């Protein structure tokens, strides 16, 4: 990455936060938490009911983000405190993650409550993390830098998850009595990992300049929010992209959050699910970086559409899988496109919005992404309950990916770049 040394240092510190918070994404959102939730905290319930509970917990966390994201982003823009806001959400969420280890067996409602709070912190911090992209690198490097962040996140999250998996499979090596004890201890380690690796961002990434004192943050943020809503209505490329993103990122997010629970419901062994997630993480590391570079060559939109086409094929195949090797293959295919679709979406959107209002505009970006998650995971669970077979859950993903792709093709990037 050809850039001045100081800028490279800032970019690495920024990207290292992806390394930090991806531990939560792998161990909690995608990996061990769904298994522990179903087998320990919801052991008395049917698998479809446990899936539905987890889906509603994801949906509630997303609803909170829908309510706070745009205003929080506008306030951070005006006061120049995007980084401070990120850390204000991240550190308490990391502490709540560690508290999962103290939840007794059968208390699914308490586990779900802590999960909602920690997930709100995770998603809110990501809002401010995404918005810092426009401040830490020149526009021509946004695709590559965004891909670098996601790639580093896949590697860090994968390494942490691998360590947790080894502990679950061989608890005696770590002085633990059982696999359950190891899984609960993994939540403590994940919280510490998140907090410690957030420190480079805290100390090395500068705050973007603000435009108002702290006392004016709330009223000024409300005025700016009203102004941006008017701008969104008038700026067709932005709102068309946001609608497209709302649809397809719901499919991506639901795949991340519900894949392990889906595999468990089909009767796959815990070890099969663990291996599949590890495959996704370690394939995702180079793939996200490569997709960022590909976006610079063929354009972000084409890269996203390529990924969505593969996602549709994955969802169709996922409805019919029978054997663990199929689950592994699908995991590898998801790893090829998951980080790339996320990274290119972030940098594509950054090219459509005013940089001075990045926090606020990324508030809407995260709002629609999380509002989609308000629908996706519960719908994924409901389809399995309604039809009496969890395989029908794949229908939700297919529709979301197709609708999102069709809308994305209608975004006028030339008009968007004029602003």
From TrEMBL:
It is found in: Endomembrane system. SUPFAM superfamilies: MFS general substrate transporter (SSF103473). It comes from the Bacteria. The chain crosses the membrane at residues 16-36, 56-73, 85-103, 109-129, 150-169, 175-196, 238-261, 273-294, 303-321, 327-349, 361-386, 392-409. Its main location: membrane. The keyword Membrane applies. Residues 11-414 form the Major facilitator superfamily (MFS) profile domain. The keyword Transit peptide does not apply. It holds the Pfam family ATG22. It is a multi-pass membrane protein. Keywords: Membrane, Transmembrane, Transmembrane helix, Transport. This is MFS transporter. It comes from Spiribacter onubensis.
């Amino acid at each position: 990455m050809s850039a001045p040394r100081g800028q490279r240092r800032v970019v690495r510190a920024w990207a290292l936060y992806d390394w930090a918070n991806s531990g939560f994404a792998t161990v909690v959102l995608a990996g061990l938490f769904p298994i522990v939730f179903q087998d320990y905290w919801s052991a008395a319930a049917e698998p479809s009911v446990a899936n539905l509970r987890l889906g509603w917990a994801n949906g509630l966390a997303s609803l909170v983000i829908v309510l706070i994201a745009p205003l929080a982003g506008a306030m951070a823009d005006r006061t120049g405190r995007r980084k401070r806001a990120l850390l204000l959400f991240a550190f308490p969420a990391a502490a709540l993650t560690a508290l999962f280890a103290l939840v007794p067996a059968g208390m699914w409602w308490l586990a779900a409550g802590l999960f909602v709070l920690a997930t709100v912190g995770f998603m809110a911090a990501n809002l401010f993390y995404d918005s810092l992209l426009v401040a830490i690198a020149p526009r021509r490097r946004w695709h590559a830098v965004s891909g670098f962040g996601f790639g580093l996140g896949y590697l860090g999250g994968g390494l942490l998850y691998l360590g947790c998996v080894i502990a679950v499979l061989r608890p005696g090596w770590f002085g633990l009595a059982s696999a359950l004890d190891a899984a609960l201890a993994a939540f403590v380690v994940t919280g510490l990992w998140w907090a410690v690796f957030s420190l480079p961002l805290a100390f090395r990434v500068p705050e973007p300049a603000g435009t108002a004192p702290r006392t004016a943050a709330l009223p000024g943020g409300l005025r700016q929010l009203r102004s941006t809503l008017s701008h969104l209505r008038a700026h067709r490329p932005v709102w068309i992209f946001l609608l497209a993103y709302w649809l397809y990122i719901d499919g991506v997010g639901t795949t991340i959050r519900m894949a392990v629970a889906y595999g468990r419901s089909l009767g796959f062994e815990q070890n099969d699910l663990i291996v599949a997630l590890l495959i996704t993480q370690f394939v995702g590391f180079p793939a996200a970086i490569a997709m960022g570079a590909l976006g610079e060559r063929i354009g972000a939109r084409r890269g996203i559409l390529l990924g969505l086409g593969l996602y549709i094929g994955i969802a169709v195949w996922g409805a019919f899988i029978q054997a663990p090797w199929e689950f592994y293959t699908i995991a590898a295919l998801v790893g090829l496109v998951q980080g790339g679709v996320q990274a290119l979406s972030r940098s594509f959107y950054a090219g459509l919005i005013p940089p001075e209002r990045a926090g606020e505009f990324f508030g809407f970006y995260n709002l629609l992404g999380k509002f989609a998650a308000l629908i996706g995971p519960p719908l994924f669970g409901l389809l399995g309950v309604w039809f009496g077979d969890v395989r029908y859950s794949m229908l939700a993903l297919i529709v979301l990916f197709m609708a999102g792709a069709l809308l994305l093709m209608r975004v006028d990037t030339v008009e968007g770049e004029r602003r």
